[in-house]
Write a structure and sequence with these properties.
With about 270 residues, this protein is of the alpha/beta class. It has helices at about 15-20, 25-35, 45-60, 80-90, 110-130, 145-155, 170-180, 195-205, 235-245, 250-265; strands at about 5-10, 35-45, 65, 95-105, 130-135, 160-165, 180-185, 210.
């Protein structure tokens, strides 16, 4: 498709799935650029993957880093690791702190530790004027965790944030966009049974929508069931365009512009 330029706002180049299947970061980037993706937010989930994201950003002009400790990885996190994230946050090509947040989907046994590590990283984002990239997952049919995360952002007067792979309801989306935060849509929106998320995309104002792959996960239709790749983001864009009743080109242009604004790209 001609004249399509995209930004993948959340991807994991160093996931074990890629290593197992023999993909290199260089190959993934080259293929995605050929597919219209201009920029990538290489996203960490612990200190090691955050450092890898920074290396990606230093090596590739098209890549920027988002660094942080995922809520499911907080159990053994020490002050030393938080200090390492704080140090990395000062590097030029680091654009966000993420993916951070709260995840009580399976259990809330680490609730206090999750909350503490989340807040420490929100402080790092605030100090360095970086985007907070949120991972939020609540128990099925519950949304309390979303509001807990939102309160944390408001408490620390965070100016820019993105809810990674949004799958909650319209009320939650409205609460975040009321504060000026962005809703990031991934491949789930293409799933036939994702009716509530599709409704959210229909209703959220265009200026608050951005897109991601979360690759190698959440592969969109028509590649669902295979390892996700960054160039597959076009299928998410196409579905969003269909829901918004606009052209794919217009949807791409809007989400590209929104992402540039969110992450301060020039």
């Amino acid at each position: 498709m001609k004249n399509i330029t995209l930004i993948d706002c959340h991807t994991h180049f160093h996931d074990d799935k890629y290593t197992t299947e023999g993909y290199t970061t260089n190959d993934l980037i080259d293929d995605a650029i050929n597919g219209g993706v201009k920029y990538f937010m290489s996203t960490g989930y612990d200190v090691a993957s955050s450092k890898a994201s920074v290396r990606d950003a230093m090596k590739h002009k098209s890549v920027f880093a988002v660094i942080g400790i995922h809520p499911n990885n907080v159990e053994d996190v020490s002050e030393i690791e938080i200090a390492e994230i704080a140090k990395l946050a000062k590097l030029d090509k680091v654009k966000g702190i993420g993916e951070i947040g709260l995840d009580f989907y399976y259990s809330d046994k680490n609730k206090d530790k999750q909350m503490f590590i989340f807040e420490e990283q929100v402080k790092i984002a605030k100090e360095n004027n970086l985007v907070v990239v949120l991972h939020i997952r609540d128990q099925k049919n519950h949304t309390d965790v979303y509001y807990s995360c939102l309160k944390m952002l408001i408490k620390h007067k965070i100016k820019k944030a993105m809810v990674h792979c949004f799958t909650a309801d319209q009320a939650v989306a409205d609460a975040f966009i009321k504060e000026g935060y962005y809703i990031s849509i991934g491949g789930v929106v293409t799933f036939p049974n994702a009716k509530e998320l599709q409704h959210v995309v229909e209703k959220v104002p265009m200026k608050y929508l951005v897109t991601e792959t979360d690759a190698p996960y959440l592969t969109p239709v028509p590649y669902r069931g295979t390892t996700n790749r960054q160039e597959y983001i076009i299928h998410t864009i196409k579905k969003m365009a269909e829901l918004k009743k606009i052209s794919t080109e217009e949807m791409a242009e809007v989400t590209y512009s929104n992402a540039k604004n969110l992450f301060g790209l020039v």
